Amino acid sequence: MGEDGNKAYGHKTFNRSRSHFTDRITADGRDGWPVAAGRYRLVVSRACPWASRAVVSRRLLGLEKALPMAVADPIQDDRSWRFTLDPDGRDPVLGIRFLAEAYDRRETDYPGGVSVPAVVDVPTGRLVTNDYQRLTLDLATEWTALHREGAPDLYPRSRRDEIDAVMAEVYEDVNNGVYRAGFATHQAEYERACTAVFRRLDALAERLAGQRYLVGDTITEADIRLFTTLVRFDPVYHGHFKCNRWKLAENPVLWAYARDLFQTPGFGDTVDFDHIKRHYYQVHSGINPTGVVPLGPDLAGWTSPHHREELGGRPFGDGTPPGPVPEGEEVAARGRPA
User: Measured between alpha carbons, how far is 60 from 52 in angstroms, rounded to an integer?
Assistant: First the structure.
Protein backbone atom coordinates (compact mmCIF):
# COMPACT_ATOMS: atom_id res chain seq x y z
CA MET A 1 0.00 0.00 0.00
CA GLY A 2 1.48 3.35 -1.02
CA GLU A 3 1.50 6.64 0.84
CA ASP A 4 -1.84 7.84 -0.55
CA GLY A 5 -3.40 4.48 0.24
CA ASN A 6 -2.06 4.62 3.77
CA LYS A 7 -3.75 7.98 4.33
CA ALA A 8 -7.02 6.48 3.06
CA TYR A 9 -7.28 4.05 5.98
CA GLY A 10 -10.16 5.15 8.16
CA HIS A 11 -11.68 7.19 5.36
CA LYS A 12 -13.15 4.42 3.21
CA THR A 13 -14.79 1.10 4.03
CA PHE A 14 -12.21 -1.64 4.49
CA ASN A 15 -12.42 -4.70 2.27
CA ARG A 16 -9.61 -7.26 2.20
CA SER A 17 -8.70 -8.14 -1.37
CA ARG A 18 -8.49 -11.77 -2.38
CA SER A 19 -5.10 -13.06 -3.38
CA HIS A 20 -4.67 -12.43 -7.10
CA PHE A 21 -1.85 -14.89 -7.74
CA THR A 22 -3.02 -18.27 -6.50
CA ASP A 23 -0.67 -20.71 -8.22
CA ARG A 24 0.33 -23.52 -5.89
CA ILE A 25 3.75 -25.06 -5.35
CA THR A 26 3.02 -28.77 -5.11
CA ALA A 27 4.81 -32.09 -4.91
CA ASP A 28 3.62 -33.03 -8.40
CA GLY A 29 4.08 -29.54 -9.88
CA ARG A 30 0.58 -29.52 -11.38
CA ASP A 31 0.51 -25.71 -11.57
CA GLY A 32 3.96 -25.65 -13.13
CA TRP A 33 5.69 -25.03 -9.82
CA PRO A 34 7.13 -28.24 -8.33
CA VAL A 35 8.46 -28.33 -4.78
CA ALA A 36 12.25 -27.99 -5.00
CA ALA A 37 14.80 -27.08 -2.37
CA GLY A 38 16.32 -23.65 -2.94
CA ARG A 39 14.28 -22.76 -6.01
CA TYR A 40 11.92 -20.32 -4.30
CA ARG A 41 12.28 -17.36 -1.96
CA LEU A 42 9.71 -16.55 0.71
CA VAL A 43 9.29 -12.79 1.12
CA VAL A 44 7.78 -11.69 4.42
CA SER A 45 7.43 -8.82 6.83
CA ARG A 46 7.76 -9.64 10.51
CA ALA A 47 5.17 -6.91 11.08
CA CYS A 48 2.45 -8.61 9.03
CA PRO A 49 0.26 -11.26 10.71
CA TRP A 50 -0.52 -12.98 7.40
CA ALA A 51 3.18 -13.29 6.57
CA SER A 52 3.99 -14.34 10.13
CA ARG A 53 1.87 -17.46 9.64
CA ALA A 54 4.32 -18.58 6.97
CA VAL A 55 7.34 -17.69 9.12
CA VAL A 56 6.06 -19.83 12.00
CA SER A 57 5.06 -22.74 9.76
CA ARG A 58 8.38 -22.71 7.90
CA ARG A 59 10.29 -22.85 11.18
CA LEU A 60 8.15 -25.55 12.80
CA LEU A 61 8.51 -27.73 9.69
CA GLY A 62 12.24 -27.12 9.35
CA LEU A 63 12.06 -25.63 5.88
CA GLU A 64 14.58 -22.85 6.50
CA LYS A 65 17.21 -24.22 4.10
CA ALA A 66 14.72 -25.51 1.52
CA LEU A 67 12.79 -22.22 1.40
CA PRO A 68 15.13 -19.27 2.10
CA MET A 69 13.48 -16.12 3.43
CA ALA A 70 13.73 -12.40 2.71
CA VAL A 71 12.53 -9.92 5.34
CA ALA A 72 11.14 -6.61 4.13
CA ASP A 73 11.41 -3.31 5.96
CA PRO A 74 8.36 -2.82 8.22
CA ILE A 75 8.04 0.76 6.96
CA GLN A 76 6.71 0.99 3.44
CA ASP A 77 6.99 3.81 0.95
CA ASP A 78 4.89 4.56 -2.13
CA ARG A 79 6.00 1.29 -3.76
CA SER A 80 5.01 -0.82 -0.75
CA TRP A 81 7.35 -3.51 0.64
CA ARG A 82 11.02 -2.70 0.17
CA PHE A 83 14.34 -4.36 0.97
CA THR A 84 15.99 -1.45 2.76
CA LEU A 85 17.10 -3.73 5.62
CA ASP A 86 19.60 -5.34 3.23
CA PRO A 87 22.93 -3.90 2.07
CA ASP A 88 22.46 -1.38 -0.75
CA GLY A 89 18.69 -1.70 -0.29
CA ARG A 90 18.46 -4.81 -2.46
CA ASP A 91 17.50 -8.36 -1.66
CA PRO A 92 20.82 -10.22 -1.98
CA VAL A 93 19.28 -13.16 -3.85
CA LEU A 94 16.62 -11.57 -6.06
CA GLY A 95 18.60 -8.39 -6.64
CA ILE A 96 15.52 -6.19 -6.41
CA ARG A 97 14.75 -3.12 -4.30
CA PHE A 98 10.98 -3.60 -4.11
CA LEU A 99 8.79 -6.70 -3.99
CA ALA A 100 6.68 -4.95 -6.64
CA GLU A 101 9.42 -5.76 -9.15
CA ALA A 102 8.70 -9.50 -8.78
CA TYR A 103 4.99 -8.75 -9.23
CA ASP A 104 5.77 -6.78 -12.40
CA ARG A 105 7.78 -9.67 -13.81
CA ARG A 106 4.74 -11.89 -13.32
CA GLU A 107 2.14 -9.43 -14.61
CA THR A 108 3.09 -6.04 -16.05
CA ASP A 109 1.16 -3.11 -14.56
CA TYR A 110 -0.65 -5.39 -12.10
CA PRO A 111 -3.35 -3.10 -10.65
CA GLY A 112 -3.67 -4.67 -7.20
CA GLY A 113 -1.71 -4.21 -4.01
CA VAL A 114 1.71 -5.71 -3.31
CA SER A 115 1.26 -8.05 -0.37
CA VAL A 116 3.23 -10.46 1.78
CA PRO A 117 3.73 -13.33 2.20
CA ALA A 118 4.87 -13.81 -1.35
CA VAL A 119 6.86 -16.63 -2.91
CA VAL A 120 9.17 -15.71 -5.77
CA ASP A 121 10.77 -18.07 -8.30
CA VAL A 122 14.49 -17.34 -7.97
CA PRO A 123 15.61 -18.34 -11.50
CA THR A 124 13.11 -16.02 -13.21
CA GLY A 125 12.51 -13.45 -10.46
CA ARG A 126 8.76 -13.84 -11.00
CA LEU A 127 6.14 -13.94 -8.30
CA VAL A 128 4.62 -17.40 -7.92
CA THR A 129 1.93 -16.84 -5.29
CA ASN A 130 0.65 -14.36 -2.74
CA ASP A 131 -2.13 -16.68 -1.56
CA TYR A 132 -1.69 -16.33 2.20
CA GLN A 133 -4.64 -18.61 2.93
CA ARG A 134 -3.29 -21.58 0.95
CA LEU A 135 0.47 -21.12 1.31
CA THR A 136 0.89 -22.49 4.83
CA LEU A 137 -1.43 -25.43 4.17
CA ASP A 138 0.77 -26.38 1.23
CA LEU A 139 3.91 -26.03 3.32
CA ALA A 140 2.37 -28.57 5.69
CA THR A 141 1.07 -31.02 3.08
CA GLU A 142 2.97 -30.58 -0.22
CA TRP A 143 6.48 -29.92 1.08
CA THR A 144 6.64 -33.05 3.27
CA ALA A 145 9.64 -34.52 1.42
CA LEU A 146 11.68 -31.55 2.61
CA HIS A 147 10.38 -31.38 6.19
CA ARG A 148 12.90 -31.81 8.99
CA GLU A 149 13.00 -35.08 10.90
CA GLY A 150 10.46 -34.80 13.71
CA ALA A 151 8.37 -32.12 11.99
CA PRO A 152 4.83 -31.90 13.42
CA ASP A 153 1.70 -32.59 11.38
CA LEU A 154 0.14 -29.14 11.36
CA TYR A 155 -2.85 -30.13 9.22
CA PRO A 156 -3.70 -33.73 10.19
CA ARG A 157 -6.06 -35.33 7.71
CA SER A 158 -8.38 -36.74 10.38
CA ARG A 159 -8.94 -33.26 11.85
CA ARG A 160 -9.11 -31.09 8.75
CA ASP A 161 -12.84 -30.45 8.77
CA GLU A 162 -12.70 -29.22 12.35
CA ILE A 163 -9.53 -27.21 11.74
CA ASP A 164 -11.10 -25.58 8.67
CA ALA A 165 -14.26 -24.67 10.60
CA VAL A 166 -12.32 -23.12 13.47
CA MET A 167 -10.01 -21.23 11.11
CA ALA A 168 -12.96 -19.82 9.17
CA GLU A 169 -14.50 -18.38 12.34
CA VAL A 170 -11.18 -17.02 13.55
CA TYR A 171 -10.48 -15.42 10.17
CA GLU A 172 -13.85 -13.72 9.86
CA ASP A 173 -14.17 -12.30 13.35
CA VAL A 174 -10.61 -12.08 14.70
CA ASN A 175 -7.84 -12.11 12.04
CA ASN A 176 -9.78 -9.83 9.69
CA GLY A 177 -12.21 -8.48 12.29
CA VAL A 178 -9.60 -6.32 14.00
CA TYR A 179 -8.90 -4.63 10.65
CA ARG A 180 -12.58 -3.96 10.04
CA ALA A 181 -12.76 -2.32 13.46
CA GLY A 182 -9.54 -0.39 13.05
CA PHE A 183 -10.32 0.96 9.59
CA ALA A 184 -14.02 1.62 10.19
CA THR A 185 -15.28 4.88 8.72
CA HIS A 186 -18.23 5.45 11.05
CA GLN A 187 -19.42 4.49 14.51
CA ALA A 188 -21.91 1.78 13.61
CA GLU A 189 -19.41 0.02 11.32
CA TYR A 190 -16.80 0.08 14.08
CA GLU A 191 -19.19 -1.16 16.76
CA ARG A 192 -20.34 -4.11 14.64
CA ALA A 193 -16.78 -5.17 13.94
CA CYS A 194 -15.48 -4.63 17.47
CA THR A 195 -18.43 -6.48 18.98
CA ALA A 196 -17.80 -9.45 16.67
CA VAL A 197 -14.11 -9.51 17.62
CA PHE A 198 -14.80 -9.82 21.33
CA ARG A 199 -17.75 -12.16 20.92
CA ARG A 200 -15.45 -14.58 19.09
CA LEU A 201 -12.59 -14.09 21.55
CA ASP A 202 -14.97 -14.88 24.41
CA ALA A 203 -16.04 -18.07 22.61
CA LEU A 204 -12.42 -19.04 21.97
CA ALA A 205 -11.56 -18.47 25.62
CA GLU A 206 -14.41 -20.78 26.60
CA ARG A 207 -13.16 -23.42 24.16
CA LEU A 208 -9.57 -23.14 25.41
CA ALA A 209 -10.43 -23.16 29.10
CA GLY A 210 -10.43 -26.95 29.12
CA GLN A 211 -8.04 -27.85 26.30
CA ARG A 212 -4.52 -26.71 25.56
CA TYR A 213 -4.89 -26.24 21.79
CA LEU A 214 -7.74 -25.30 19.47
CA VAL A 215 -8.15 -28.70 17.79
CA GLY A 216 -7.00 -31.96 19.34
CA ASP A 217 -4.06 -32.19 21.72
CA THR A 218 -1.33 -30.88 19.42
CA ILE A 219 -0.46 -27.61 17.69
CA THR A 220 -2.19 -27.23 14.33
CA GLU A 221 -2.55 -24.59 11.63
CA ALA A 222 -5.51 -23.21 13.59
CA ASP A 223 -3.27 -22.28 16.52
CA ILE A 224 -0.77 -20.57 14.23
CA ARG A 225 -3.47 -18.39 12.70
CA LEU A 226 -4.93 -17.33 16.03
CA PHE A 227 -1.50 -16.72 17.57
CA THR A 228 -0.39 -14.19 14.95
CA THR A 229 -3.36 -11.98 15.84
CA LEU A 230 -3.15 -12.48 19.60
CA VAL A 231 0.55 -11.60 19.75
CA ARG A 232 -0.29 -8.23 18.12
CA PHE A 233 -3.37 -7.57 20.21
CA ASP A 234 -2.06 -5.46 23.07
CA PRO A 235 0.81 -3.79 21.15
CA VAL A 236 -1.36 -2.54 18.26
CA TYR A 237 -4.95 -3.76 17.99
CA HIS A 238 -6.07 -2.65 21.46
CA GLY A 239 -5.04 0.97 20.97
CA HIS A 240 -4.37 1.60 17.29
CA PHE A 241 -7.42 -0.37 16.08
CA LYS A 242 -9.63 0.56 19.08
CA CYS A 243 -10.29 -3.09 20.00
CA ASN A 244 -10.24 -2.10 23.64
CA ARG A 245 -13.02 -3.81 25.52
CA TRP A 246 -10.20 -5.56 27.32
CA LYS A 247 -6.53 -6.31 26.81
CA LEU A 248 -5.29 -9.78 26.00
CA ALA A 249 -3.35 -9.66 29.28
CA GLU A 250 -6.67 -9.18 31.10
CA ASN A 251 -8.17 -12.43 29.78
CA PRO A 252 -6.70 -15.25 31.89
CA VAL A 253 -7.36 -18.06 29.39
CA LEU A 254 -6.29 -16.37 26.16
CA TRP A 255 -3.30 -14.66 27.79
CA ALA A 256 -2.04 -18.00 29.14
CA TYR A 257 -2.71 -19.70 25.79
CA ALA A 258 -0.82 -17.02 23.89
CA ARG A 259 2.12 -17.18 26.30
CA ASP A 260 2.20 -20.97 26.01
CA LEU A 261 2.58 -20.70 22.24
CA PHE A 262 5.01 -17.77 22.48
CA GLN A 263 7.28 -19.86 24.67
CA THR A 264 7.08 -22.81 22.27
CA PRO A 265 10.07 -22.96 19.87
CA GLY A 266 8.96 -21.71 16.48
CA PHE A 267 6.51 -19.10 17.73
CA GLY A 268 7.98 -16.41 19.98
CA ASP A 269 11.40 -16.68 18.41
CA THR A 270 9.91 -15.39 15.14
CA VAL A 271 8.13 -12.36 16.68
CA ASP A 272 9.60 -8.87 16.35
CA PHE A 273 7.54 -6.42 18.41
CA ASP A 274 9.63 -3.50 17.18
CA HIS A 275 8.73 -4.23 13.56
CA ILE A 276 5.08 -4.77 14.51
CA LYS A 277 4.66 -1.49 16.36
CA ARG A 278 6.56 0.68 13.92
CA HIS A 279 4.67 -0.72 10.93
CA TYR A 280 1.16 -0.21 12.26
CA TYR A 281 1.68 3.16 13.93
CA GLN A 282 3.90 4.71 11.25
CA VAL A 283 2.43 3.27 8.05
CA HIS A 284 -1.30 3.67 8.81
CA SER A 285 -1.15 7.44 8.60
CA GLY A 286 -4.87 7.69 7.91
CA ILE A 287 -5.65 6.68 11.49
CA ASN A 288 -2.41 7.76 13.21
CA PRO A 289 -1.34 10.89 11.31
CA THR A 290 1.37 11.85 13.82
CA GLY A 291 3.24 8.57 13.32
CA VAL A 292 3.99 8.47 17.04
CA VAL A 293 4.80 4.94 18.25
CA PRO A 294 3.78 4.16 21.85
CA LEU A 295 6.39 2.96 24.31
CA GLY A 296 4.28 0.17 25.79
CA PRO A 297 3.12 -2.36 26.54
CA ASP A 298 5.66 -4.01 28.83
CA LEU A 299 6.80 -7.20 27.09
CA ALA A 300 8.16 -8.97 30.16
CA GLY A 301 4.92 -10.85 30.76
CA TRP A 302 5.36 -12.93 27.62
CA THR A 303 7.99 -15.06 29.33
CA SER A 304 6.10 -15.56 32.61
CA PRO A 305 4.78 -19.03 33.59
CA HIS A 306 1.51 -19.99 31.90
CA HIS A 307 0.73 -23.38 33.50
CA ARG A 308 -1.07 -24.57 30.36
CA GLU A 309 0.93 -27.80 30.43
CA GLU A 310 -1.40 -28.85 33.25
CA LEU A 311 -4.08 -29.39 30.57
CA GLY A 312 -1.91 -32.07 28.96
CA GLY A 313 -1.39 -32.07 25.23
CA ARG A 314 1.72 -32.72 23.20
CA PRO A 315 2.82 -29.58 21.35
CA PHE A 316 4.52 -31.46 18.48
CA GLY A 317 2.57 -34.70 18.66
CA ASP A 318 4.92 -37.56 17.82
CA GLY A 319 7.47 -35.06 16.55
CA THR A 320 10.07 -32.85 18.20
CA PRO A 321 10.69 -29.12 18.66
CA PRO A 322 12.62 -27.27 15.95
CA GLY A 323 16.29 -26.59 16.56
CA PRO A 324 17.93 -23.22 17.17
CA VAL A 325 16.98 -20.25 15.01
CA PRO A 326 19.27 -20.27 11.95
CA GLU A 327 22.10 -17.76 11.94
CA GLY A 328 20.98 -14.51 10.38
CA GLU A 329 17.29 -15.01 11.17
CA GLU A 330 17.41 -14.01 14.83
CA VAL A 331 14.96 -11.33 15.96
CA ALA A 332 16.65 -8.08 16.99
CA ALA A 333 17.09 -7.69 20.74
CA ARG A 334 14.97 -4.51 20.90
CA GLY A 335 12.04 -6.46 19.52
CA ARG A 336 12.19 -9.13 22.22
CA PRO A 337 10.78 -9.31 25.76
CA ALA A 338 13.34 -8.43 28.42
Answer: 12
Rounded Cα distance between 207 and 259, Å, is 17
The letter for the amino acid at 204 is L
Select from 240, 228, 241 the least CA-distant residue to 178. 241
CB distance 91 to 122 below 8 Å: no
pLDDT < 50: residue spans in the chain: 1-4
pTM equals 0.94
Residue 290 has phi, psi (to 5 degrees) of: -75, -25
Instruction: Note every long-range contact of 302-310, with CB atoms under 8 Å and residues 24 or more positions apart, other chains counting.
Output: 302/259, 302/262, 302/263, 302/268, 302/337, 303/259, 303/262, 303/263, 303/337, 304/259, 306/256, 306/257, 306/259, 306/260, 306/263, 307/256, 308/212, 308/256, 308/257, 308/259, 308/260, 309/212, 309/260
In this structure, are residues 80 and 99 in contact, taking their beta carbons and an 8 Å threshold? Answer: yes
Q: Give tens-digit pLDDT for 196-224.
A: 999 999 999 999 999 999 999 999 999 99
| 141: Cβ contacts below 8 Å, ≥ 6 apart | 155
What three-state secondary structure class fits 153? coil
The answer to whether residues 133 and 19 touch, using CB atoms and an 8 Å cutoff, is yes
In the residue annotation, 179 being an active-site residue is answered as: yes
| 48 included as an active-site residue | yes
Residues ≥6 apart with Cβ < 8 Å to 205: 251, 253, 254
Integer Cα distance of 212 and 282 in angstroms: 36
Give residues with Cβ within 8 angstroms of 315, minimum separation 6. Answer: 152, 218, 219, 264, 321
* Catalytic-labelled residue, pool 40, 179, 237, 257: 179
**Candidate list 48, 155, 237, 280, residue with the active-site label:** 48
CB count, 10 Å around CB of 123?
A: 7
| 280 sits in which H/E element | helix 273-283
